[in-house]
TrEMBL record:
EC number: 3.6.5.2
Xref: InterPro entries: P-loop_NTPase, Ras-related_GTPase, Small_GTPase
Domain of life according to the entry: Eukaryota
Top-level EC class: hydrolase
Gene3D superfamilies recorded: P-loop containing nucleotide triphosphate hydrolases
Keywords annotated in UniProt: GTP-binding, Hydrolase, Nucleotide-binding
Family: Belongs to the small GTPase superfamily. Ras family.
Gene Ontology MF term list: G protein activity; GTP binding
Reactions that this protein is recorded to catalyse: GTP + H2O = GDP + phosphate + H(+)
Xref: Pfam families: Ras
Organism field: Falco tinnunculus
Record protein name field: small monomeric GTPase
Length: 208
C-alpha cells in the first residue's frame, strides 16, 4: 500500500512528499455500510530486502491493494508477480481463514498525470480480467472518494467471505513482523483540519 493513498484515505488530505523508505502500520476507523470498521493498514515501502520480509508482510494481511502508477511501467509489471505471491502464500495449508484467496484489488494510481501515462486503462483492465480481480484507476491527488472505494471493496469482499462479523476488530500480533522488518518508524502525528491524528507504528502492536 502506498503512502499517499493510505494517508488520503485516513486524513482525506493529499500529502505529496514522503520518505519512500518509511514503513508504517496505520490504524483507522471508518463507517462502511453503516458499520464501524477498524482498519490496520501496512503501508509498505516496497523495498523488501529479501523474500522472507515480503512473505511476512503478506502473511500479516487479510486483504491487499496492489498499487501501481500509470506513469511507471515497471510498477505495473510487478503487479502480476505480487498477486501470484499473495495467492501462493495464502494458499498454504496453514492458512487459518479458510480456502478462499484473500481479497486483492488492483489499483492504477496517478490517472491525473495524463501526459506521463505509460500504462493504458486497457492494460489495467486486461490484467484484472486475466487475474479475475477488481480493478480501479484512481487519482489519489484528485479524489478522496476513489481511495475510499479501494478500501470498501476489500472490506466488502472480506465480509462476503465470512471471515469477520461486521465491526469486529481482529487485533494482530506483529512481534514476528517486527523482528523480520528492522526498519521501524516511531509514531508520528499529522495535523488535519486542526486535529491531530496519531499514526501508529509497529511499536503500538507489541502484544501486551
Ligand atoms: N500527480 C499525482 N501524484 C501522486 C499521486 N499519488 C501519489 N503521487 C505522488 O507520487 C509520489 C510517490 O507517492 P507515494 O504515495 O509515496 O507512492 P510510491 O509508490 O512510494 O511512489 P514512488 O515513490 O513513485 O515509487 C509522491 O511525490 C506523491 O506526491 C496521484 O494520484 N497523482
Amino acid at each position: 500500500m502506498r503512502s499517499a493513498l493510505t494517508v488520503r484515505f485516513i486524513t482525506r488530505r493529499f500529502i505529496g512528499d514522503y520518505d519512500p523508505t518509511l514503513e508504517m502500520i496505520y490504524r483507522h476507523m471508518a463507517v462502511i455500510d453503516g458499520e464501524m470498521v477498524h482498519f490496520e493498514i501496512l503501508d509498505t515501502a516496497g523495498q523488501e530486502e529479501d523474500s522472507l520480509q515480503i512473505e511476512e508482510k503478506i502473511k500479516w494481511g487479510d486483504g491487499f491493494a496492489v498499487v501501481y502508477s500509470v506513469t511507471d511501467r515497471c510498477s505495473f509489471d510487478e503487479v502480476m508477480r505480487l498477486c501470484f505471491l499473495i495467492n501462493h502464500i495464502h494458499s498454504s495449508p496453514k492458512r487459518s481463514s479458510g480456502s478462499e484467496q484473500p481479497p486483492v484489488v488492483i489499483v492504477g494510481n496517478k490517472k491525473d498525470l495524463q501526459f506521463d501515462r505509460m500504462v493504458s486503462t486497457e492494460d489495467g483492465e486486461n490484467l484484472s480480467k486475466a487475474l479475475k480481480l477488481p480493478f480501479y484507476e484512481i487519482s489519489t491527488r484528485d479524489s478522496y472518494e476513489e481511495t475510499v472505494v479501494v478500501f470498501n471493496t476489500l472490506y466488502q469482499e472480506l465480509m462476503r467471505q465470512g471471515h469477520f462479523s461486521p465491526g469486529s476488530f481482529k487485533r494482530r500480533t506483529v512481534s514476528k513482523l517486527m523482528e523480520k522488518i528492522p526498519k521501524m518508524q516511531g509514531s508520528s502525528t499529522l495535523n488535519s483540519a486542526g486535529r491531530s491524528l496519531s499514526f501508529n507504528s509497529f511499536r503500538d502492536y507489541i502484544p501486551e
